[in-house]
């Protein structure tokens, strides 16, 4: 199998770009407003029809429009939280791996502490404490998910640290910062990219899980997890309220999973060569 | 190692099977099967202060007086009572034949002990405030609790001496807090009395598996030998509203609430019609406006909001299980004024009124609410209505504890969505505790302050003529509506559905439904 | 070896103290007063103050922290604010339910995952590999609570084949299924990839070349070396699940630790929250230590280190 033909990577990439396009174009492609009532369906949601393709919810809102605007919110949460996760994780991992010794031990103990917590439980406790909102979501997700990244980056850096070109550039008097930023981090980039894609999946699922428990982005902002959680009690009489947001989450997670797995394969193939 | 794990797993699964709720025995059909989401918080009458706790405390304990279905006081442990003309002394003649479920005779000393216990700080009772008006209650705050105002006249006679006359005193004795408890059992279990409750009620606790189920069985020593008509009650715990309904629907439960999504379908089906029971509760859902904070320091803006809310839409969201509220008091409350005009829904007038004030919105105003499904849904409807008159609101759903904390702080919350449920069938239980300025920081969460209303309320508290008092309180309500610290939304109607084998079941407007008067037939599901 | 074990134990204790501290911080950053949650909506200020005092919440934070650590050291997790039940007992009562769910699901998932992973790897067919990968990626992309609701909707409500949540043998089938789909997907993938790696090793190729029957090669070489990563993952998952299968327990109303913890969060029942979180953390730390030791015992290279 050659790189270009990596079907996982290709499919994942296409799907992710498609989602991004939906998110960016949301105001133009959504048929209705996502928050204001557009149908007289209070208390009794309407099933999908030609006018409302995915039906309406119990507050008279168009489900399709909410899904489309929800793409914005869900991707925003996923991407920003992932970036935060990476910043913390790569930072801690790189410093620990490069400096080693006491710093390494201390940082890895701290990682162990966070890792020892049941992730979702810690997230729930934090989310319940913080003011509900987008910023809180980013913070909570990043605070519970950086540990995996930190560990992987650290072990990668540990092995790279002893490579010839690193030793050479240190011998030539390069500063630590230069060595880390010019040599070590660029060389861990494939790993980081893979981690980014996979941690986006984890983030999407965590966001959905928190929203499901009522702790996500506050109403009436349409996020997929929120829509699922709001429709919990309607799932028998109005299954479209839970099926569509669920499918949206599955599609998004699947896309990033495929992308991540494709990247993983790519870097494995490169290493083998 | 794998084998061992498998073995442990098998053991666990087997042990689960044995304890499962199916292993009921042959008496199964004579038990009423109910369910709830939360475990019963407490069966200790000094501690529980919520619907689920009270439902079960009502079964296990009895109070001196109780309510009939019209919320009138009737005798329970007391055979009769007299009040002195100045309203400071109450004397109760107790039934001579009341036993605790452990076999000991209940006496007047147990009545006194129970209230002293509630007043003792160490028992952390949320009901302490109700009995602070008894003479000598203050001793409990500092030293050993000796409430001399509760006089044990004889084993079957008890007398209460109050510091000030209190028209609500009998109602306070009807709360489970005042239910007699046996001192020796309380002292034996200490903090764990709630797990091993012993009372004088129609039922006694048989089994309580935290998070799974709670079983009460008939108390053979109950003073009224004709009650209860059933062998007991099995409550499955951890069953949310949806599961409760579905389990009812497949015949696993005898009683259930109906989730809002299902309700329209249920009422349309003829076979369910005869099984529905409903009651208008003594509750009012309202939107509270903090009169201390701009823009709600301007009464015109508060009135504009009153005009902007489409209560009919809210009622549709709860499937019309409610009565639109024009005033503060619920329809089942004495003193309810059916002719109160209130505010008509008129978004155009509201918009105009808002414009006339010249107020300009610079940022979204926070609406605080409890983070639960129905409340969040209602709040979104309110948000939509207010957006329609150009009033932008940002929702802030938080957990119950933080929500209460925030609402009770003076300055934090501009507007909030909350309900109030009467403890006593008396209008002062709304008007006084929610609007008198001395309750600011406690239950007057809108910081509403009117010297005139305060004065009227104080006068009403001293009145002995019931009709005059109700009339004055009626004036208070009209005045509050005009000042508009609230947007009254609706009075919920509780609807429950019973299985075909349940007979003589009624809902109570003030208290949780009782199970000691219903009976079960052998036929039906 | 013993020195290494001692070091491991010391590190575990440090981590546990860290966990206790972090829990304390999370619990007390709460911008609101737990006494209010205990007292309920109607209690007056005096009652709330009294409850606050009785719960020790009016003492300074450092003092509360020290007394909290002191009680922890004695194994006392305190009593729930709401039910007044000792936290240790509350956990002990919920533990069997969570354990039953976790053990059954992991055993099933490991069994099915290993069979699928090993079987497909043995086929040595690229298309089969791709299908397995796609399936496992798909399985991992399903939010577990969504599968849960779908299962309930179809099997319990529509077809009425199984109970609608709750605790018991038949009630366990749906939650176990949901968890097994989730866990099995990752086990299958891991079993598959580690077996593929092992099969490319020289000693396995030699074994095949020597003409050993395939099943012997798999059972002796491949299984022993290829399954180590799977065992590690199972160990981690087990500890994680024992700490509470939060979403699954919520959807299926399974009376386990996860729901206990979530209820504790929403009720601001700090002792109960801290107790469940700490308990979960202890399990994770202990199981990590066990995995390390098992590794050391299984792998002679690590043993000599």
Give me the secondary-structure topology:
The complex is a heterotrimer of chains A (273), B (525) and C (305).
Chain A lengths: L6 H23 L33 H37 L1 H16 L2 H11 L4 H28 L2 H8 L4 H37 L11 H7 L9 H33 L1
Chain B lengths: L1 H18 L11 E6 L14 H10 L4 E3 L5 E3 L2 E6 L5 E6 L13 H12 L19 H4 L7 E5 L2 E5 L7 H5 L9 H7 L13 E7 L3 E6 L13 E6 L3 H9 L5 E3 L5 H6 L7 E5 L2 E7 L9 H10 L2 H7 L4 E3 L22 H10 L8 E6 L2 H16 L4 E6 L1 H9 L6 E7 L6 H8 L15 H12 L3 H18 L2 E13 L3 E2 L15 E2 L5
Parallel strand pairs in B: 1-10, 15-16, 15-17
Antiparallel strand pairs in B: 2-3, 4-5, 5-7, 6-7, 8-9, 9-10, 11-18, 12-18, 13-17, 13-18, 14-18, 19-20
Chain C lengths: L1 H27 L5 H6 L5 H10 L6 H13 L13 H37 L2 H16 L2 H15 L14 H27 L2 H8 L4 H13 L1 H15 L3 H7 L4 H11 L2 H29 L1 H5 L1
Q: Summarize this, please?
A:
The complex is a heterotrimer of chains A (273), B (525) and C (305). Chain A has 273 residues and is mostly helical.
Percent in helix of chain B: 25-40%
**What's the β-strand tally of chain B?**
20
**Gyration radius from CA atoms of chain A, angstroms:** 22 Å
Helix count, DSSP H or I runs of 4 or more residues of chain A: 9
Largest sheet of chain A: none
- Characterize the main sheet of chain B: 8 strands, mixed
Compute the number of helices of chain B: 16
Oligomeric state: heterotrimer
N→C terminal distance of chain A: 13 Å
For the secondary structure, the number of strands of chain A is: 0
* Structural class by sheet pairing and helices of chain A: mainly alpha
Helix content of chain A: over 70%
CA radius of gyration of chain B: 25 Å
Q: Biggest interface: chains and residue counts? A: B-C, 57 and 58 residues
Uncertain stretches of chain A:
none
- Uncertain segments of chain B are 1-26
Shape of chain A: elongated
How much beta of chain B, percentage-wise?
15-25%
Structural category of chain B is alpha+beta
Order of helices and strands of chain A: HHHHHHHHH
Tell me about this structure.
The complex is a heterotrimer of chains A (273), B (525) and C (305). With 273 residues, chain A is mostly helical. Chain A contains 9 helices and no strands. In chain A, helix 2 packs parallel to helix 5 (134-161). Chain A is elongated, with a radius of gyration of 22 Å. The radius of gyration of chain B is 25 Å and the shape is globular. Helix content of chain B is 31%, strand content 20%. Chain B is an alpha+beta fold and 525 residues long. In chain B, the strands form 5 sheets. In chain B, strands 11, 12, 13, 14, 15, 16, 17 and 18 form an 8-stranded mixed sheet that branches. Chain B has a 4-stranded mixed sheet with strand order 1-10-9-8, covered by helices on one side. Helix content of chain C is 78%, strand content 0%. At the B-C interface, helix 1, helix 7 and helix 13 of B face helix 2, helix 3, helix 5 and helix 13 of C.
